[in-house]
């Protein structure tokens, strides 16, 4: 049986790397005595697959993973037992039976929603920058890659962007194998469009949710139905 | 206060490397309400989190202190250089991971001393805590600064910085220390000297400030003289006689982030009497004291259940020597396999038996197997008493290839007493043996895939060993010998690794140093020495300058052959060995005569058992009744 899990990584646990999070969740589920299915071979490890890697320092309430179990476990019981054995800041928010036999979550997820907290930004400038960003046909920022920095147009990778409060933004951006937009790049793009944002700093990045976004229609599907 | 400090620290974390080192919040961390405990201990590891969290002794002591209702123990680690800079810039003091409390607010700061090259980090920790570096400058308002661990047996280079050093096994003595501290404080916390006097009367506790040292005109030590009435001329070590009788932590803190030994550890025995003459640990922790196999199994089960680790390691100085090793390992392996847990043994002897044991547990992918002949030739192995024959080495290699290993790592020490170029050639020869045997066992085709690593470190003479009288080879000579070995290693399948000789040279200075070396440590730290045990940070030239400015002649401590009559800086810190025996054993080394292991053969009268009224304790299966050890359910 396979369960699909929605996980939160909040507070100081946001400083865990993706590998740290995987290690921590695995140990928690082992302690909880859940009937994990292991891979075959000399070095067996539990079959747990993550939808997407989360950067160190980013908190989240929208991490998704599929956990293979050797016998059925009631999702509510899974949630309760796992949470009793996970350390501070790592929480199972929801568990549901994984639907069907589709592609892996990793292959299907292509959009992520973030809440961004910006400090040192003039609010009016922030609003102006967002308006300019949405109106722009092209926003070129320097992207750091393995081989150096190169200019990229990030505008097509930003699907939604809005000011939601003082120094607070909500963004829906591209993620996954087709292209991955970093929240810092959104701020870099905004800073180019408004002089009042020069000293602005992204102090908190929080992932809200992951989606499958239909490239034609823009319709969003939550991982539960994938 | 703690909340405000936490917020300030949190703001630094996005800017530093590996921030998970500083966040705490790990599973099984013990967080107590400070208002409900009498005594607070900050267990401060003078190295990075990932090293400190791997140290079994620290997990043991954390548990020992926290099991008391009247005390709490919280952890702090030396911050990495980027974090140290950030903390200094923001005026943030050294803090504990459990409660974000400044270390200076604890009653006791305890430093484990495992490695000399962490000494400068110890100063960083004190300084960041805002505690005066010198014991003499601390008042009743400051925490008591104590240190323990292997290096405590010559803590003289740290003497001015420590209030108390603790020699030997910590599990029992820590409670005496805490009780004495409480009694002193309840008596009005009057005179700090009064506290130190009380502590100095506890077996295992050394108060450096209560001893005056005088020197001979040639710079050697003339005398150590106690300056307080009732302070012992020789400080004895604390010794746990029966490991089964002391509590072992089966609920250790489980890190969230990668550490060096990321696995559950169960200690199967303490001490080792194989008598390898270079090995400090073998002399300061005599005799062998085993934990019973039934208890080991029970502890292992609880440990796995309470931690969720996927690997369990049975640890000791040489686990393949554990009396019941095969059946213990076999049973645990079978039992834990179905939970996806691998059982491993860290250190292995060099013979076919140990390979068989390693193989029995190694359900994991056959990676590499490590063998440590230590000395290249049979002759030098007699000098160091590594009782391994050439035949043993070949058998071990054969067994390794037969059981599927394709990579063999061989560890050697260079610069051993009496070493000649022929001994060095013999090191290289072992690499070629491995390849020959691989070809015999696997055929030419398959043997092409074999990888052999020859890893060579530089000998550091250690206090309390028969080699304490020996000099270290000079830096230039060590480098020549490293290159000399290289000449004989031409096959692509052999990888040759050697440790930086200059690191070992400073390690020797700090191992063999006396109180006068403290100035060099202080100076080096002031000049920026940090994490000296890490290659990317170690700066030999900085140490040279520091020693020069402090008037410390490194060669005096490291390159000098010492007479049997010389008074050493560590002679009053006793692991229980008799001087006569050490001299005898040194003579035997020079005569290439081996000694037997006293756990199986006759007592060689090294002195420890008589000094501390302890006996070698082997515990075959059935030593303890199974029902006495019924597994209690301690989950949740
Ligand atoms: S006194 Fe004898 S039995 Fe005890 S450790 Fe020394 S040699 Fe071994």
Core attributes:
heterodimer, A: 226 residues, alpha+beta, two-stranded antiparallel sheet, 5 helices, 35% strand, B: 636 residues, alpha/beta, four-stranded parallel beta sheet, 21 helices, disordered C terminus, binds iron/sulfur cluster
Describe the model.
The complex is a heterodimer of chains A (about 230) and B (about 625). Chain A is about 25% helix and about 35% strand. In chain A, α4 packs across α5 (about 185-195). Chain A has helices spanning about 20-30, 75-85, 105-110, 125-135, 185-195, and strands at about 1-10, 50, 60-70, 90-95, 110-120, 140-145, 150-155, 160-165, 170-175, 200-215, 220. Chain A has 5 helices and 11 strands, in the order βαββαβαβαββββαββ. The two termini of chain A are about 15 Å apart. Chain A is elongated. In chain A, strands 1, 2, 3, 4, 5, 8, 9, 10 and 11 form a 9-stranded mixed sheet that branches. Chain A is of the alpha+beta class and about 230 residues long. Chain B has about 625 residues and is α/β, with parallel strands linked by helices. Chain B contains 21 helices and 19 strands. Chain B has a 6-stranded mixed sheet. A 4-stranded parallel sheet of chain B has the order 15-16-17-18. A 3-stranded parallel sheet of chain B has the order 10-13-14. In chain B, α3 (about 55-65) packs across α6 (about 170-185), α13 packs parallel to α14 and α17 crosses α18. Chain B is globular, with a radius of gyration of 24 Å. Chain B starts with a helix and ends in a 24-residue tail after the last helix. The chains are: A alpha+beta (about 230), B alpha/beta (about 625). The interface of A and B includes residues 29, 57 and 203 of A. Bound molecules: iron/sulfur cluster.
Structural class of chain A: alpha+beta
Total beta strands of chain A: 11
Shape of chain B: globular
Q: How many β-strands of chain B, per DSSP?
A: 19
Assembly state here? heterodimer
SSE class of chain B: alpha/beta
- Supply the number of helical segments of chain A: 5
What letter string, H or E per element, gives the SSE order of chain A?
Answer: EHEEHEHEHEEEEHEE
Number of helices of chain B: 21
**Bound molecule types:** iron/sulfur cluster
Low-confidence stretches of chain A: none
Rg of chain B is: 24 Å
Indicate the percent of residues in helices of chain A. Answer: 10-25%
Span from first to last CA of chain B? 31 Å
